[in-house]
UniProtKB/TrEMBL annotation:
Origin species: Azospirillum griseum
Gene3D superfamilies (alphabetical): Glycogen Phosphorylase B
Lineage start: Bacteria, Pseudomonadati, Pseudomonadota, Alphaproteobacteria, Rhodospirillales
Biological process according to GO: lipopolysaccharide core region biosynthetic process
Name the UniProt record assigns to this protein: Glycosyltransferase family 9 protein
Keyword tags: Glycosyltransferase, Transferase
Annotated signal sequence range: none
Entry's Gene Ontology cellular component terms: cytosol
Coiled-coil residue spans: none
GO molecular function: ADP-heptose-lipopolysaccharide heptosyltransferase activity
Classification via InterPro entries: Glyco_trans_9, LPS_LOS_Heptosyltrfase
Amino acid sequence: MTRILFITSNRLGDAVLSTGLLGHLIDRHPQARLTIACGPLPAPLFRAVPGLERLIPMAKQPYARHWWRLWLACVGTRWDMVVDLRNSAVGRLVLAGTRAFHRKAARPMHKVEEIGAVLGLSPPPAPRLWIDARAEAEADALLPPDRAPFLAIGPTANWLSKEWPVERFARLAQRLTGPDGPLPGARVAVLAAGAERVRALPLLAALGVRAIDLTGRTDPLAAAACLRRAALYVGNDSGLMHIAAAVGVPTVGLFGPGFPETYGPWGASARAVTGSVPREELLRRVGLDPNASGLMDGVSEDRVAEVAQHLLGAANKF
């Protein structure tokens, strides 16, 4: 029996972007038994992976004790393959037939390409998620039963400086779901992590009865099940943006001081929209204050609406 140890990120977005490489391993070794180590936040994304033998959430501990505990959990197994996207000592200090480690790219490339290069894959495999019946049941309970098309919005991010103003999201929602919009009369699902819910409340209030409140109510896999049913996702640079793109929803990611060439949403139906202020200026302001406000003001509502309508039009052709 082939056993593979796959060590991936503790961050949600990076973990999502690594799923294409994981899917490639599953396709190449369909009978393999997989052990996946990752951070606690993205861990639910991997619970339905085919061939999963063990899922090890690694909560950070003082003095890097989380790595010591991972080594203790893995050292007793003779692995046929270790794929270590953290480039850790654990990947080197367990018995293994073959090993592959992530290394920072010598030239600028998207993170999906960088991860694919771990196994020499070009073009790289696209991220994918495996959604189980539990997540689908949670989506059934949270979403309207009529299965009508809806707009999904992710108005928050892990940094305040990466958040587009909430009032712009509200106006965009009205524009896209109003009588003359591409989704007339559609409801609007609002998603945010539990700790970020308070920053999404003004958007929920602006949407009123048309809002579907998914803030702080789902784990990442249930969020994926909900997003897979959306007609379109618009949101800031965040893990939710990558989840939306990975499940194939037309996705518009909004970037201010971020790096869309490295972390933009991946896929044929995904686009990044940037602002008019030079990134060097935005990064300078972030350096002065990591939670500086106004850094997303240069992202045009007109441009976001234009890209959203283009993606919706393309999706409706099929």
